[in-house]
């Protein structure tokens, strides 16, 4: 019966394989839609160059805003770190600044904060890697921005990461202390394995659970050979060796490295970056999403509070940027795979003092591939940034949130 059930499960899993939608490089579509679009918005991201040799740098720049619409079901964002999101240790992080301040570790964040980042990473392993910026928020996890494929070609010189210490000595971080760390950990591992194998291979504690579970907790039961005085002797030997290992370690560290400092962190509160002077007020009027054509239609009311005519430039949602413009503007907006077209109707400038109702229409496979729109969730909200500006170059980013009503559903089962 059980076997037939398991066989059925395996057959169902095999049958589902051909229907699996295309998967991305490292599960970036895995997060729930609300975790992407209500939390953060990445924009003006640039990753270059896209082809390097091992040891050469790739620079990631851009901005991320922690949205005011941060979901109440998550811990409030307080501490975060901007990180390169790559598949494993194939790059080494060399330099990082947040709002033009050096940021060695994490930093203090707040809802509504804008963080301009610059990361310099060095290629370590040859290959073709998908590289994203991400923001790791304590209590929530890593939220990722748009990515690019970076080709890392092999180099004739082996990878090195020289770092100058405070005492003036230069070390290669790639290999520094590697042998010692390996052998020292191995010594601890051998002791642990000796203990583990001693009790699992030769003793009845594990193999005869039915017997051992009958005994009181503090009964060694030497009469049935469970824990004998000889076992006590060998365990004392293991404890003794462990203590010797620790004392040797402390002595070695104290004599060889007399100048030591505790592990430290350097938390900063980045200087605030403004969303731009207030040019307009935007109130969303609702949105619909057609899953059959991947089309989002959003109605917003825009009130121009400034002296100049305003145009809608972009709508930024999670890691995607939708541009009200042609190919040139789209190429400027960020990594190509995460940029799409925004249609604004009517698309004429909004005059000073005017209040206008606009319809935003976006048709993009990104909604499906990156799972940006909640379709069967208890809360059907989307959020993002509307970027608008005038002819003099003034800009404002306005956070909006609206409910979204799906107009058509695809079946969730492979039928
Ligand atoms: Cu990726």
Fold and architecture overview:
By secondary structure, this protein is α+β, with helices and mostly antiparallel strands. It has 3 domains: 21-167, Jelly Rolls (Sandwich), CATH 2.60.120.570; 178-256; 280-408, Immunoglobulin-like, CATH 2.60.40. The protein is 22% helix and 36% strand. It is built from 8 helices and 22 strands. Helix 3 runs antiparallel to helix 6. The radius of gyration is 29 Å and the shape is elongated. 27% of the residues are buried. It binds copper (II) ion.
Q: CATH superfamily assignment of the largest domain?
A: Particulate methane monooxygenase, b subunit. Chain: A, domain 1
**CA distance, first residue to last residue:** 27 Å
Strand order of the largest sheet: 18-17-16-21-22-14-15-20-19
Tell me the domain tally: 3
**Quaternary state, please?**
single chain
CATH topology of the largest domain: Jelly Rolls
Low-pLDDT regions: 17-24
How many extended strands?
Answer: 22
| SS-derived structural category | alpha+beta
CATH architecture annotation of the largest domain: Sandwich
Q: Estimate the strand proportion.
A: 35-45%
Largest sheet: 9 strands, mixed
- SSE order, as H and E? HHEEEEEEEEEEEEEHHHHEEEEHEEEHEE
Bound molecule types: copper (II) ion
CATH class of the largest domain: Mainly Beta
- Number of helical runs? 8
> Mean pLDDT score, rounded?
89
Percentage of residues assigned to helices:
10-25%
Shape: elongated
Alpha-carbon Rg, integer: 29 Å
